[in-house]
Write a structure and sequence with these properties.
single chain, 9 helices, elongated, three-stranded antiparallel beta sheet, 11 strands
Amino acid sequence: MKQIPRHQEIVELVMKQGYVSTEELVERFNVSPQTIRRDLNELADANKIRRYHGGATTPLSSENTSYNTRKSLHFSEKDLIAANLVKHIPDGASLFIDIGTTPEAVARALCLQHKQFRLDFGILGISGIDNDGSLLDFDYHKVRVKQAIIENSRRVFLAVDHSKFGRNAMVKLGNISQVDALFTDMSPPEHILSIINEHQIRVEVTTSSDMDE
């Protein structure tokens, strides 16, 4: 494949997946690692991707796109997920609430439906769940917070919309086996669902029709 078409395809892969490794690109295009590294450097210089050791992400993926942009994506789905999740939080429960647009929706729903809560439950939001069940994010600093939530909570609830399934991100923060319940708006893909079932993780799928009933 010539350089320009290859560059275009690399950009499309990065935008679709969020992160691609050099090894993946070498195998995909059947070229040398040096060629891929040169491609990535040129694309990064043109601000079409963001270069990282071992691969590349979208230009703003270290921030996982702007907060306001993420907040507008799948807005109604996040509210549905949040409304269902808080039904499983008893009054007086203690909470760790993660940073992110979906946890923010959970916090809003908690304020509407609960009068007081204390730190038995950890409510987690992430950037992606890969095909091996790894929980992924883009920010090393936020990962430490999420890991602390998992380690210090008696029960961990993961709230994600369907766009996070199979999505790649740079930093692994844990595995879905560390989660007690998954709240989402669409059933996970079969390969992720099999891991969930293997670890007997509760799955709560909420759609708009469920909330209308």
